[in-house]
Write a structure and sequence with these properties.
The protein has 2 domains: about 100 residues, no CATH class; about 200 residues, Sandwich (Immunoglobulin-like), CATH 2.60.40. It is about 30% helix and about 35% strand. The strands form 3 sheets. Strands 4-7-2-1-9-12 form a 6-stranded mixed sheet, with no helix packed on it. A 4-stranded antiparallel sheet has the order 8-13-10-11, with no helix packed on it. A 3-stranded antiparallel sheet has the order 3-6-5, with helices on one face. Helix 1 runs antiparallel to helix 2.
Length: about 325
Protein backbone atom coordinates (compact mmCIF):
# COMPACT_ATOMS: atom_id res chain seq x y z
CA UNK A 1 0.00 0.00 0.00
CA UNK A 2 1.41 3.45 -0.89
CA UNK A 3 2.53 5.59 2.01
CA UNK A 4 -0.14 8.29 1.36
CA UNK A 5 -2.94 5.72 1.47
CA UNK A 6 -1.56 4.24 4.69
CA UNK A 7 -1.45 7.69 6.25
CA UNK A 8 -5.04 8.43 5.19
CA UNK A 9 -6.28 5.13 6.63
CA UNK A 10 -4.43 5.79 9.88
CA UNK A 11 -5.86 9.31 10.17
CA UNK A 12 -9.39 8.03 9.54
CA UNK A 13 -8.98 5.34 12.20
CA UNK A 14 -7.64 7.88 14.70
CA UNK A 15 -10.58 10.17 13.98
CA UNK A 16 -13.15 7.40 14.40
CA UNK A 17 -11.65 6.39 17.73
CA UNK A 18 -11.44 9.98 18.99
CA UNK A 19 -15.05 10.76 18.06
CA UNK A 20 -16.23 7.71 19.96
CA UNK A 21 -14.20 8.21 23.14
CA UNK A 22 -12.85 11.77 23.14
CA UNK A 23 -11.60 13.86 24.72
CA UNK A 24 -12.74 16.91 22.76
CA UNK A 25 -9.31 18.34 21.89
CA UNK A 26 -8.05 14.97 20.61
CA UNK A 27 -11.16 14.56 18.42
CA UNK A 28 -10.81 18.08 17.04
CA UNK A 29 -7.12 17.61 16.28
CA UNK A 30 -7.81 14.25 14.59
CA UNK A 31 -10.62 15.76 12.48
CA UNK A 32 -8.43 18.63 11.29
CA UNK A 33 -5.60 16.20 10.49
CA UNK A 34 -7.92 13.82 8.62
CA UNK A 35 -9.17 16.65 6.39
CA UNK A 36 -5.67 18.04 5.83
CA UNK A 37 -6.68 21.63 6.51
CA UNK A 38 -4.28 24.19 8.00
CA UNK A 39 -5.77 26.28 10.78
CA UNK A 40 -5.82 29.37 8.57
CA UNK A 41 -8.13 27.56 6.13
CA UNK A 42 -10.35 26.38 8.99
CA UNK A 43 -10.61 29.97 10.21
CA UNK A 44 -11.48 31.10 6.67
CA UNK A 45 -14.31 28.58 6.42
CA UNK A 46 -15.64 29.73 9.79
CA UNK A 47 -15.59 33.38 8.79
CA UNK A 48 -17.55 32.58 5.63
CA UNK A 49 -20.26 31.22 7.94
CA UNK A 50 -20.24 34.42 9.99
CA UNK A 51 -18.32 32.88 12.91
CA UNK A 52 -15.28 34.75 14.23
CA UNK A 53 -12.62 32.61 15.90
CA UNK A 54 -8.90 33.33 15.91
CA UNK A 55 -6.24 30.89 14.76
CA UNK A 56 -4.74 31.07 18.24
CA UNK A 57 -8.02 29.96 19.82
CA UNK A 58 -8.32 27.08 17.36
CA UNK A 59 -4.77 26.04 18.21
CA UNK A 60 -5.51 26.16 21.94
CA UNK A 61 -8.68 24.11 21.47
CA UNK A 62 -6.93 21.30 19.62
CA UNK A 63 -4.06 21.28 22.13
CA UNK A 64 -6.42 21.11 25.11
CA UNK A 65 -5.04 24.36 26.55
CA UNK A 66 -8.50 25.96 26.40
CA UNK A 67 -12.05 24.73 25.85
CA UNK A 68 -14.91 26.48 24.04
CA UNK A 69 -17.48 27.69 26.58
CA UNK A 70 -19.14 30.89 25.36
CA UNK A 71 -22.22 30.70 23.10
CA UNK A 72 -20.25 32.07 20.13
CA UNK A 73 -17.54 29.46 20.72
CA UNK A 74 -20.11 26.66 20.82
CA UNK A 75 -21.58 28.01 17.59
CA UNK A 76 -18.10 27.72 16.12
CA UNK A 77 -17.85 24.09 17.26
CA UNK A 78 -21.11 23.26 15.48
CA UNK A 79 -19.79 24.99 12.34
CA UNK A 80 -16.57 22.98 12.63
CA UNK A 81 -18.59 19.77 12.57
CA UNK A 82 -19.96 20.80 9.18
CA UNK A 83 -16.64 22.12 7.83
CA UNK A 84 -14.78 18.96 8.87
CA UNK A 85 -17.61 16.72 7.60
CA UNK A 86 -18.36 15.22 11.00
CA UNK A 87 -21.69 13.86 12.30
CA UNK A 88 -23.78 16.66 13.79
CA UNK A 89 -23.26 17.11 17.57
CA UNK A 90 -20.25 14.76 17.58
CA UNK A 91 -17.89 17.43 18.98
CA UNK A 92 -20.56 19.15 21.09
CA UNK A 93 -21.37 15.78 22.64
CA UNK A 94 -17.76 15.40 23.79
CA UNK A 95 -17.98 18.80 25.48
CA UNK A 96 -21.26 17.84 27.12
CA UNK A 97 -19.88 14.47 28.29
CA UNK A 98 -17.02 16.26 30.04
CA UNK A 99 -19.40 18.67 31.78
CA UNK A 100 -18.02 21.69 29.93
CA UNK A 101 -21.20 22.61 28.08
CA UNK A 102 -23.05 25.49 29.76
CA UNK A 103 -26.57 24.85 31.01
CA UNK A 104 -29.31 25.72 28.54
CA UNK A 105 -27.43 24.74 25.39
CA UNK A 106 -29.17 22.39 22.97
CA UNK A 107 -28.49 18.74 23.82
CA UNK A 108 -27.55 16.16 21.23
CA UNK A 109 -30.26 14.93 18.89
CA UNK A 110 -32.00 11.65 19.63
CA UNK A 111 -29.58 8.76 19.45
CA UNK A 112 -29.79 5.99 16.86
CA UNK A 113 -30.66 3.56 19.67
CA UNK A 114 -33.55 5.70 20.93
CA UNK A 115 -34.92 6.10 17.40
CA UNK A 116 -34.79 2.32 16.89
CA UNK A 117 -36.58 1.80 20.21
CA UNK A 118 -39.27 4.29 19.22
CA UNK A 119 -39.65 2.57 15.83
CA UNK A 120 -40.20 -0.77 17.57
CA UNK A 121 -42.78 0.75 19.92
CA UNK A 122 -44.55 2.42 17.00
CA UNK A 123 -44.77 -0.88 15.12
CA UNK A 124 -46.37 -2.52 18.16
CA UNK A 125 -48.88 0.30 18.72
CA UNK A 126 -49.90 0.30 15.05
CA UNK A 127 -50.41 -3.45 15.25
CA UNK A 128 -52.76 -2.92 18.20
CA UNK A 129 -54.87 -0.68 15.95
CA UNK A 130 -54.72 -3.20 13.05
CA UNK A 131 -53.09 -0.55 10.90
CA UNK A 132 -51.36 -1.70 7.67
CA UNK A 133 -48.03 -0.04 6.78
CA UNK A 134 -49.47 2.60 4.44
CA UNK A 135 -53.09 2.72 5.63
CA UNK A 136 -54.38 2.71 2.06
CA UNK A 137 -53.63 6.43 1.58
CA UNK A 138 -51.07 8.41 -0.39
CA UNK A 139 -50.19 11.86 0.97
CA UNK A 140 -50.50 14.63 -1.62
CA UNK A 141 -49.86 17.47 0.81
CA UNK A 142 -49.08 17.82 4.52
CA UNK A 143 -48.80 21.14 6.35
CA UNK A 144 -47.76 21.11 10.01
CA UNK A 145 -47.83 24.07 12.36
CA UNK A 146 -45.94 23.71 15.65
CA UNK A 147 -46.29 26.17 18.53
CA UNK A 148 -43.49 26.62 21.08
CA UNK A 149 -44.77 28.23 24.26
CA UNK A 150 -43.49 30.86 26.67
CA UNK A 151 -41.73 28.16 28.72
CA UNK A 152 -39.89 27.15 25.53
CA UNK A 153 -41.89 23.91 25.50
CA UNK A 154 -43.43 22.12 22.52
CA UNK A 155 -46.96 23.27 23.35
CA UNK A 156 -48.95 21.88 20.44
CA UNK A 157 -48.96 21.00 16.78
CA UNK A 158 -51.63 21.04 14.10
CA UNK A 159 -51.63 18.97 10.91
CA UNK A 160 -53.52 19.57 7.65
CA UNK A 161 -53.55 16.56 5.30
CA UNK A 162 -54.53 16.10 1.66
CA UNK A 163 -54.65 12.39 0.82
CA UNK A 164 -55.73 10.08 -2.01
CA UNK A 165 -57.01 6.55 -1.43
CA UNK A 166 -55.33 3.82 -3.47
CA UNK A 167 -57.85 1.13 -2.54
CA UNK A 168 -61.57 1.01 -1.80
CA UNK A 169 -63.04 1.28 1.69
CA UNK A 170 -60.50 3.50 3.45
CA UNK A 171 -62.21 5.33 6.31
CA UNK A 172 -59.46 6.35 8.74
CA UNK A 173 -55.97 7.71 9.19
CA UNK A 174 -53.63 6.80 12.07
CA UNK A 175 -51.71 9.86 13.31
CA UNK A 176 -48.34 9.55 15.03
CA UNK A 177 -46.87 12.03 17.51
CA UNK A 178 -43.37 11.59 18.96
CA UNK A 179 -42.91 13.79 22.02
CA UNK A 180 -39.59 15.13 23.23
CA UNK A 181 -37.51 12.95 25.60
CA UNK A 182 -39.19 12.86 29.00
CA UNK A 183 -42.64 13.73 27.66
CA UNK A 184 -45.81 12.10 29.00
CA UNK A 185 -48.00 11.02 26.05
CA UNK A 186 -50.72 9.82 28.41
CA UNK A 187 -51.29 13.48 29.32
CA UNK A 188 -51.46 14.69 25.72
CA UNK A 189 -54.78 15.44 24.03
CA UNK A 190 -55.72 14.71 20.41
CA UNK A 191 -58.23 17.06 18.76
CA UNK A 192 -60.09 16.12 15.58
CA UNK A 193 -60.60 19.53 13.92
CA UNK A 194 -61.98 19.08 10.38
CA UNK A 195 -63.61 16.15 8.54
CA UNK A 196 -62.62 13.54 11.11
CA UNK A 197 -63.29 12.35 14.66
CA UNK A 198 -61.01 10.75 17.24
CA UNK A 199 -61.07 6.98 17.63
CA UNK A 200 -58.72 4.78 19.65
CA UNK A 201 -55.58 6.33 21.13
CA UNK A 202 -52.49 4.38 22.25
CA UNK A 203 -49.24 5.64 23.78
CA UNK A 204 -45.93 4.53 25.32
CA UNK A 205 -44.51 6.55 28.19
CA UNK A 206 -40.85 5.55 27.85
CA UNK A 207 -40.44 6.75 24.26
CA UNK A 208 -43.06 9.52 24.17
CA UNK A 209 -44.82 7.90 21.20
CA UNK A 210 -48.57 8.43 20.74
CA UNK A 211 -50.78 7.06 17.96
CA UNK A 212 -54.42 8.02 17.37
CA UNK A 213 -57.13 6.89 14.97
CA UNK A 214 -58.81 9.69 13.03
CA UNK A 215 -62.09 8.34 11.67
CA UNK A 216 -63.66 9.70 8.49
CA UNK A 217 -67.42 10.02 7.99
CA UNK A 218 -67.12 8.50 4.51
CA UNK A 219 -65.54 5.42 2.98
CA UNK A 220 -63.19 6.46 0.24
CA UNK A 221 -62.99 4.66 -3.08
CA UNK A 222 -59.68 4.17 -4.88
CA UNK A 223 -58.61 7.44 -6.50
CA UNK A 224 -60.74 9.70 -4.29
CA UNK A 225 -59.09 12.57 -2.43
CA UNK A 226 -59.85 13.77 1.11
CA UNK A 227 -58.88 16.69 3.34
CA UNK A 228 -58.77 16.59 7.13
CA UNK A 229 -57.16 18.40 10.04
CA UNK A 230 -56.23 17.43 13.58
CA UNK A 231 -54.09 18.69 16.47
CA UNK A 232 -52.12 17.35 19.43
CA UNK A 233 -51.72 19.26 22.69
CA UNK A 234 -48.36 18.40 24.23
CA UNK A 235 -46.59 20.73 26.66
CA UNK A 236 -45.73 17.82 28.99
CA UNK A 237 -41.97 18.33 29.16
CA UNK A 238 -39.46 21.19 29.46
CA UNK A 239 -37.38 23.07 26.92
CA UNK A 240 -37.74 21.99 23.28
CA UNK A 241 -34.88 22.33 20.81
CA UNK A 242 -36.22 20.87 17.56
CA UNK A 243 -39.14 19.36 15.70
CA UNK A 244 -38.55 16.38 13.40
CA UNK A 245 -40.93 14.61 11.03
CA UNK A 246 -40.17 11.10 9.74
CA UNK A 247 -41.32 9.75 6.37
CA UNK A 248 -41.47 6.03 5.65
CA UNK A 249 -41.70 6.52 1.89
CA UNK A 250 -41.73 9.21 -0.79
CA UNK A 251 -44.77 11.46 -0.88
CA UNK A 252 -46.17 14.83 -1.82
CA UNK A 253 -45.43 18.32 -0.57
CA UNK A 254 -44.52 18.88 3.08
CA UNK A 255 -44.49 22.25 4.84
CA UNK A 256 -43.47 22.82 8.46
CA UNK A 257 -43.98 26.09 10.33
CA UNK A 258 -42.66 26.60 13.88
CA UNK A 259 -44.12 29.57 15.77
CA UNK A 260 -42.51 30.91 18.94
CA UNK A 261 -44.04 32.87 21.79
CA UNK A 262 -42.93 36.52 21.54
CA UNK A 263 -41.68 36.26 25.15
CA UNK A 264 -39.30 33.41 24.32
CA UNK A 265 -37.52 33.74 20.99
CA UNK A 266 -34.59 31.54 19.91
CA UNK A 267 -31.17 32.95 19.02
CA UNK A 268 -31.01 31.08 15.71
CA UNK A 269 -32.86 28.41 13.73
CA UNK A 270 -31.94 26.03 10.94
CA UNK A 271 -33.52 23.29 8.85
CA UNK A 272 -31.94 19.89 8.31
CA UNK A 273 -32.51 16.54 6.63
CA UNK A 274 -31.49 13.02 7.59
CA UNK A 275 -31.69 10.05 5.21
CA UNK A 276 -32.05 7.49 8.01
CA UNK A 277 -31.73 7.19 11.77
CA UNK A 278 -28.12 6.07 11.37
CA UNK A 279 -27.12 8.79 8.89
CA UNK A 280 -25.63 12.19 9.77
CA UNK A 281 -27.80 15.26 9.40
CA UNK A 282 -27.29 17.19 6.18
CA UNK A 283 -28.79 20.08 4.22
CA UNK A 284 -28.35 22.61 7.01
CA UNK A 285 -29.84 25.99 6.15
CA UNK A 286 -30.20 28.99 8.44
CA UNK A 287 -33.78 30.23 8.82
CA UNK A 288 -34.65 33.81 9.70
CA UNK A 289 -37.48 34.54 12.11
CA UNK A 290 -40.40 36.46 10.67
CA UNK A 291 -40.75 39.58 12.81
CA UNK A 292 -44.53 39.74 12.58
CA UNK A 293 -45.37 36.12 13.32
CA UNK A 294 -42.24 35.03 15.25
CA UNK A 295 -42.01 31.95 13.05
CA UNK A 296 -39.78 30.01 10.68
CA UNK A 297 -40.74 27.45 8.07
CA UNK A 298 -39.54 24.96 5.49
CA UNK A 299 -41.21 23.64 2.34
CA UNK A 300 -40.24 20.40 0.62
CA UNK A 301 -41.99 20.04 -2.78
CA UNK A 302 -41.73 16.23 -2.74
CA UNK A 303 -40.53 14.35 0.32
CA UNK A 304 -38.32 11.29 0.28
CA UNK A 305 -38.03 8.63 2.97
CA UNK A 306 -36.07 9.82 6.00
CA UNK A 307 -36.42 12.81 8.28
CA UNK A 308 -36.92 16.57 7.91
CA UNK A 309 -36.90 19.08 10.71
CA UNK A 310 -36.18 22.48 12.17
CA UNK A 311 -33.84 22.97 15.13
CA UNK A 312 -33.17 26.09 17.18
CA UNK A 313 -30.71 27.35 19.82
CA UNK A 314 -31.59 29.30 22.95
CA UNK A 315 -29.10 31.82 24.31
Amino acid sequence: MPHAAQHADSAAADLDSALRGGPFHVALRAAIAARGLPLQRVQHHLSRRGVRVGVTSLSYWQQGARRPRRPESLRAVRALEEILRLPEESLIRLLADSGEQPAGQRPAARSYRSLLEAAGVLERLLAELDCPPDGGLHTLGHHERVRVGARRELAERESHHIVRAHRDGVDRFVAVHHGDPGSAPERMTVHALDNCRTGRVRSHHGTGVLVAELLFDVRLRAGETFLFRYGVEDGTVGVAHEYVRGFGSAGGQYALQVRFDARALPARCHRFAQHSAAAPRTGHQELALSGRHCSVHLVEPRVRSGFLGIAWDWE
